[in-house]
Design a protein that fits this description.
4 strands; about 160 residues; four-stranded parallel β-sheet; alpha/beta; about 15% strand; about 40% helix
Amino acid sequence: MSDQFEPVIIGFTCNWCSYRAADMAGTARMKYSPNIRLIRLMCSGRLDPTFVLKAFAGGADGVMITGCHPGDCHYVEQNYKAMRRFVILKKTLAQLGIETGRIKLLWASAAEGAIFTDEVNKFVEQVRELGPLQWPTSGGGLEKMFAMPEQMLVKEVSA
């Protein structure tokens, strides 16, 4: 059993390119680190910056945002919006005391499973070198943060 720090990485992936790249990597049996938990979005431009802050508050040690290459977005130019938000997020995280190396933006097309795999592995090693994020969590960790709200759960009602 190793005492090596195993970081938790949340990966927000766009449905059309980078999620397909992850899928291609899996289909081609390319191995990437199991430290990343992928969350599929329709577009990287749909990523609300509060999702990133919630991930860190919930116990993530790093966040990776992936999308289509600029100019190839299925929603025309939403990945440019993601790029602008990423720059602002990095500045905000730095002001909150979080190292900017804990967040990464990656462009990967559906055919770039090898690039996706390589970049995930590099990012996991980068975050591992930074060590655990010493940021107070709001309690409950990631499972609680991304759990379905209780009012949305289906309950059986007797007739």
